[in-house]
Design goal:
20% strand; 419 residues; WH_DNA-bd_sf; alpha/beta; 5-stranded mixed beta sheet; 13 helices
Length: 419
Amino acid sequence: MAAMWQCQEVTSASTAGAVRQGSLRELNLAVVLRRIAAADRPPSRAGIAADTGLTRATVSAVVDDLIAGRLVAEAEPEPRTGAGRPARGLVLASDGPAGLGLEVNVDYLAACVVDLTGTVRHHLVRRADLRPVSPADALARLAALAAEARAAAVRDGLTLAGAALAVPGLVGDGGLVRLAPNLGWRDVDVPALLAGHSLAEPVDGVPPLVVDNEANLAALGELYARPAGPHSFLHITGEIGIGAGIVLDGSLYRGARGWSGEIGHFPVQPQGRPCRCGGQGCLERYAGQEAILAAAGLPGAELPADTAATRLADLADAGDPATLTALADAGAALGVAVAGVVNLLDLDTVVLGGGYAPLAPWLRPPVVAEISRRVLTAAWAPVEVRPAVLGAQSAAVGGAGSVVRRIVDRPVGWLARSA
């Protein structure tokens, strides 16, 4: 009996040791890859060892694994004037895993491929009014667009490691779209409708498909695009509907049920125009794309194939009086809503994204004016209002970026697949 217990104890200790070794390797892989991803200049193995406290031997072994797994590549060494060979720097690989970002919006579908370096490799858009289309038909069209993006990625030697889909609505657990009022969707099981379509390769630790609110993914895209920028901000996407992503201390704030950011249904005139959501005076009825077009005398149906935002920007740039008035009124309504959020959360940065980005030169002044009037601390703590770095692409790019970020945070899953 004693011999049996002794044998069991040895086996348990051996298993525990293997688990600890596996966990330690996983941790080291993540530490080194994050260090390379965050570096302003390609760090050397010796530099990573000095920064992380890992031994040079450990760093060298980890880097070899990352290079073999197409997560890291060696950069050309910089010229060196002293004695000895210059150290080769390390960069994220551009020919390994990539993320697929997808978007369904009221009047377009989009697919985007982003590689591990954060570079947008492909961005496809198909414009169509999707309100009269069933969810199943809309998602079938999206799957066809995703297949085009995937084929383009394969031609580049990339492997799609996951997909993230942005929708203009409230998303519950498991990717169930509870409500997307501007699309007319209610309780749509998106993953089930896309189950027959292969969007990405299976990678441990990376969900094959994540469904999220488009404003949330747009805010993440802005966060990833400006790693040295503010870590707390309000990102507003302006399309037919209006959504907001709230980033606090570098993390997306989702709320108790994941439904934060519905700024488009913030009442700016409580007894005002009726909204599709059932309320009255909602922001999108005064600052949404259709509201601005109508005020400018440009019904959406009469627009040419270019985007509404581009058309409005061209007219505003030419000094069209109706367009300038429409944008000033929309900016004032937007400023009322933004001021309430800033007062509540004490944010110092507001980002205008989506269709608002190209209109920022005309929307920004009235937004700033309302903030100055309504925010208690504006006199001595100004709030920056600026266009998004990614502009109208932010939701799809942010979704694709969220996929590759998961790989950077946990590279062991990708390495296990590619071993």
